[in-house]
Model the fold of this input.
Amino acid sequence: MKEEEYLKELSRCVRCGSCKAFCPTYDEDVTEGMAARGRLTLLRGLSLGQLTQSPVINDRVFSCILCGACAGLCPPGVDITEALYHGRNILKGSDKKRRYLRLLTKFSIKNPDLSFRLLKMLQHILFPYLTKKGILPFQSQLPDSPLRDEHYIYKAAKKRGRVALFTGCSVNFLYPHLGEALINVLIKSGYEVVLPQGEVCCGMPFRTLGLEEEAIRLAEKNMRVFGKLKVEAILSLCPTCILALKEQYPKLIGDGMDRAMDVSSFFIDKIKSPHGSRLAPHAESVTYHDPCHLNYSLGIKKEPREILKNIGFELIEAEGEGCCGFGGLFSISYKDISRSLLQKRVDAYLRTGADTIVTSCPGCIMQLSSGVKDKKVFHVIELIEEAAC
Ligand code: SF4
Ligand code: SF4
Done:
């Protein structure tokens, strides 16, 4: 975004305050700078030269979870999250607090396989240490190997169509079993599945840290790999990846993957239990957690619920909705807010009395699992797999 355009976008804010209504950070800390209106006002002040960069301004701008809950509430339709990404790009030089996080993120995204092998070697020492220090509230064991290795095509016996899988880093390196579940369901449903060689991180971790140039390079690489594939859909199990490929790449590089899709939308008409009988037998009832990017940014809310009901589960809705507090690197930078948001959602889900919590995002699984002791948190694809395979 050019400076002039950026200032114009920031100036569209009429300061009505509607964006505060469901803002999770404002809910945790009721000060003006913890909601979109305050954040945009600070960025406008910086752009006009009325303010100078400072740790306090950085903190306000980087404490946004980028959940998108405010976007649909803005009467003039300010592109709030895009303005915040751009603001982070401007502030990254003065944001010393996250400089090591930037270095680590750059290293791990540039060297994903090496990072995986290093972490695998060190996990038994490193993870308990980081968990004890409260830095890492997540899972403490990595899988034996990543999902994706080289270009691979999974053939279906009776071919009904062809799709590609954008695995994303979290599924590839942390939850490969989710990718395997999706591949199983697709093959069973008659789809040839392409895992092309050359996929890189979708770029969102870079964007959240203000590393726009690096995010652009990743977007261009992914477009080169996926743009030329002859497939009817590019499926991902991670809503943040889908948001990047579909909505953010056009803003970053002028071209995106409009065939990028979440699994619930893809399977909505394809998976049904005959006569409404329950096909997945490990739980009687489920409650569903909406991942922010799927719900607020991509507008996918009814599809996963329909699928769960179609395969025979009793769906018990929890009170309210909102962010689980994960937000990628947010959960490390702002762990108190993150844990408090988590607790609110976990309490709401436990009050439903449902046997199982289901969601559609590996990040939400990681976060929710760390807050629920005696229940497993499933990705919707795992229940679809049980029903269909
Ligand atoms: S994106 Fe989420 S956290 Fe950020 S200002 Fe909007 S509602 Fe608040
Ligand atoms: S809802 Fe939109 S116009 Fe109103 S204060 Fe928030 S960003 Fe500004």
Observations:
- The radius of gyration is 21 Å.
- The pocket of iron/sulfur cluster (ligand 2) is lined by residues 13-19, 36-37, 40, 73-76, 78, 80 (CB under 6 Å).
- The domain at 3-94 is CATH 1.10.1060.10 (Fumarate Reductase Iron-sulfur Protein; Chain B, domain 2).
- The CA atoms of residues 5 and 11 lie 10 Å apart.
